[in-house]
Specification:
homodimer; 15 helices; 4-stranded parallel beta sheet; 21% strand; Aldehyde Dehydrogenase, Chain A, domain 1; Aldehyde Dehydrogenase, Chain A, domain 2; alpha/beta; 2 domains
Chain lengths: 421, 421
């Protein structure tokens, strides 16, 4: 396809998404829920076809030398499909947000004024390899009555195309606009640039993937983007910590699933902790297979600890590796966090309520925790039922984003002929 | 100053604003209120000095050939200063938002999770001629516990510098960080470009002024911008309207203050209204001095009506001029609005509750009204007490923006040592 014809293609696609989003304004959440349930049924009915389409991607992936881990992520196993089915049913059962009324007031002149939750409109999701994102992300966007434009990784193109087509079928079956879910029908990268410049028709872009993808999206987008680049999460263990909690939280935050954004990357130890206590914490981490890079005070605790460089404080290891910093009290801990945090999640372990209050107030991150593992920073764990992503931005939405985060509001003013004097 | 040294200047300035914003996290709203009251006292005490500084701008303005209207807007009359004083007292008396707790939940594992309102951080305000914006905007930003960087019009530089210096003094008098309010200390336009690229330290930009200024800001900003380009507000008069209300609302929406963004720019008449009724409405507008551009059906009502071109539907006249469109029922009215509206404010006049509900649901604007003048779309009229601007964007804040719109939230998680299984 020529650059020009890709431009035309994306223009037509985004315009038809905008039209679909306008039609959705007049639809009910019940109907959307029926479409989500219908999609879960179609996934089961069409499993064989889906897995055949998936095989085309796997075959191409093998030929292109994808790693075993990559091929694994790409595969639509029975269990992958079952998990999509469960996800769809869970989203259908969630409480929706659209139509909620809040901030009501009646003015002295009798005007009744309130805000009501409305869909954002058209949401573009740009993601990498896993085809299940196609279903999960589309489900959450639809639940909030938005139209969605999907752009997955090129290596999953056949799988994603099949899944999006099923979704359109499920929508059509319920009399809903089929184009409420659309996948960009080309793997040409120029399509992404055109999408990111469709500010007249697309209201929000959510990139999901590695930092490189996200920076590319932010740099090129004329449309608001909600994102997080990375998760450099800190746990600060105060001299007022209860050791048993400190040990559990430090180990869990690092070890339970090190490859995700809410895992701890830097541990901060109060130098007012006894050396014995600090040794205990370091030993527990080492025994769990963690490689530690530390400052001089930390290195003194165990000979296996490597020296930490400036880069270690800025590093998202996503691995069983950890930077450890020693500070003289909470003020210094907060200064370190202010400087190096990615504003994702920070936790303090302390028995002092006063110290905890101060930490929760002064640390400027999307989630701040007291006596809890950073691994809890997650839509499911926060009780949202699902998650479209995590935001470290300050506007609109911060932290784990659920169904409500894909809505905005409008002001409704009801009068009986009032005019302004 | 060289381009390089302006870059250094803005870097130092934005960094010191960020530092001030961090200090504000630990301050109380009471203290901020005291600073606002103190500022109102300083305005009175230093009135003579302020007016002398203002005279420097007026003298330069005269030499540069500013129009009488421009010089009038630039002048710090006694009444201008009194109105700033009243504004400061009103903002001090408003209920603040920071620290509010909401969306609380306790999870099955015992974690207590909630959102709390926090300041956004550092807000940049870029505006044009009126020096009173310096005080009004800084007051609202401070009330929400944000640091603010101001960049006013070059023709008001001495006045703005004096006002910002007084604000810093008022802050210092209360033991608050003086750099919470800073004015960019140069009129060089390169400073704006550097400010707009300070995404590490500045969290939000709000431009206030003409469409040209706003488009320049949006085009160059690496920082989120909240804005509206223009207000192309529509009033739709249905065949089910009560004529007395229709007449009052049409005239008030256009005539009461035509030069502002919430004035009506296009009137849409239902062709199912009797010709007599449509004539009445047109006559009332003409009698109020309005020049009307209309489609063929409208032109048939009065010989003084000029033909409307495509451009008239897209025009923000900001004057006693009006485009009038005739449609066959509400669906066509909504299609016209979808195509031409700037998503600021649209109003329907009808006695049919069903029709009103449909209009309020399907029109995708930041304010939608039933039987009320579009002129009510305003922070003061909505009961916010003050207004930092109006947003036609969809994310974060829509419509009139008050104190709460300059806050964001963070998630607080309180545990007793919970870890993730």
């Amino acid at each position: 396809m020529t650059e020009h014809s890709i431009g035309e293609l994306i223009k037509e696609l985004t315009k038809s998404s905008k039209d679909a989003s306008r039609l959705l304004l007049n639809e009910s959440e019940e109907r959307i829920n029926s479409a989500l349930i219908n999609m879960s049924e179609l996934l089961l009915q069409q499993k064989e076809w889906l897995q055949n389409e998936n095989k085309k991607d796997l075959k191409a992936g093998e030929e292109n030398g994808l790693s075993g881990a990559m091929l694994d992520r790409l595969t639509l196993f029975d269990k992958t499909i079952n998990s999509m089915i469960t996800g769809l049913k869970e989203v259908a059962e969630l409480k929706g947000s659209v139509g909620q009324i809040y901030d009501e007031r009646t003015r002295p002149n009798g005007l009744r004024i309130y805000k009501t939750r409305v869909p954002i409109g058209v949401i573009g999701i740009i993601y990498e390899s896993r085809p299940n994102v196609t279903v999960d992300a589309a489900a959450i966007c639809l639940k909030s009555m938005n139209a969605v434009i999907l752009r997955g990784g090129s290596e999953a193109f056949h799988s994603n195309t099949a899944l999006a087509a099923l979704f359109s079928k499920a929508l059509e079956n319920q009399g809903l606009p089929a184009k409420s879910v659309q996948l960009i029908p080309t793997i040409d990268r120029a399509a992404i640039e055109h999408l990111l410049r469709s500010e007249d028709d697309v209201d929000l872009i959510i990139p999901r993937g590695g930092e490189g993808l996200i920076r590319m999206v932010v740099k090129n987008s004329h449309i608001p983007v909600i994102k997080h680049y990375k998760g450099i999460c800190h746990v600060y263990i105060s001299a007022n910590a209860e050791m048993e909690k400190a040990l559990r939280i430090a180990v869990n935050s690092k070890v339970q699933r090190p490859g995700v954004c809410n895992a701890m990357e830097t541990l901060i130890l109060d130098s007012n902790l006894s050396q014995e206590n600090r040794k205990q914490i370091i030993t527990a981490l080492l025994e769990n297979g963690v490689t530690i890079m530390g400052d001089a005070d930390t290195q003194a605790l165990n000979s296996s600890i490597k020296p930490a460089s400036e880069q270690d404080w800025e590093e998202e290891y996503l691995d069983l590796r950890l930077a450890v910093k020693t500070v003289n009290g909470m003020d210094e801990a907060i200064r370190h966090i202010s400087r190096y945090s990615s504003h994702h999640t920070e936790s303090i372990v302390t028995e002092s309520a006063e110290e905890a209050t101060e930490f929760l107030k002064l640390v400027d991150s999307s989630s701040v925790m007291h006596n809890a593992s950073t691994r809890f920073a997650d839509g499911g764990e926060y009780g949202m039922g699902c998650e479209i992503g995590i935001s470290t931005d300050k506007l609109h939405s911060r932290g784990p984003m659920g169904v409500e985060d894909l809505t905005t509001y409008k002001w409704i003013v009801k009068g009986e002929g009032q005019i302004r004097e």
